[in-house]
Amino acid sequence: MKNSGFTLKKRLKSFRYAWHGIGLLIRYEHNAWIHTFAAVCVIVAGCLTGLSATEWIAVTFAIGSVLAAEAFNSAIEALADRVNESYDEAIKRTKDLASGAVLLLAIAAAVVGLIIFVPKLFPVSL
Q1: Is 55 annotated for ligand binding?
Q2: Which is the most buried residue in 17, 23, 48, 120, by most CB within 10 A?
Q3: Domain range enclosing 99
């Protein structure tokens, strides 16, 4: 691909493509629906419990990381399916690794959520 230089028009177009990709993720990827639902629940809970700025940063990075990983996973799966529609052990391994990465981030996000919300929802008085 030839690089013909920087223009504001091209940068704005690239943002339009990126927003389209986010729309595709939210509209068509079933696992992204689950992650989005969880994100909305966490944002509502954060508003209700009065998260600190630091807690919002952690929650924002957790949500963004999981959704970005889901987008990467979906892109890898779509490309792998396009390259080879029949069963291929290397493609299966690649897809399993990508979905495993999403699971790892989702678990880490859940741990972040527990660390932040459990003390707010179940305060322990000594």
Answers
A1: no
A2: 120
A3: 27-117
Report the CATH number at residue 32: 1.10.287.3610
Q: Is 85 flagged in the annotation as binding? A: no
* Identified catalytic residue from 55, 70, 85, 89: 70
Cβ neighbours, 10 Å, residue 74: 21
Q: Is there a binding annotation on residue 77?
A: yes
* Closest to 35 (Cα-Cα) out of 57, 12, 65: 65
pLDDT tens digits along 52-96 = 999 999 999 999 999 999 999 999 999 999 999 899 999 999 999
Give me the chain's average pLDDT, please.
94
18, 26 Cβ separation under 8 angstroms: no
Question: For residue 1, is pLDDT > 70?
Answer: no
The pTM score is: 0.88
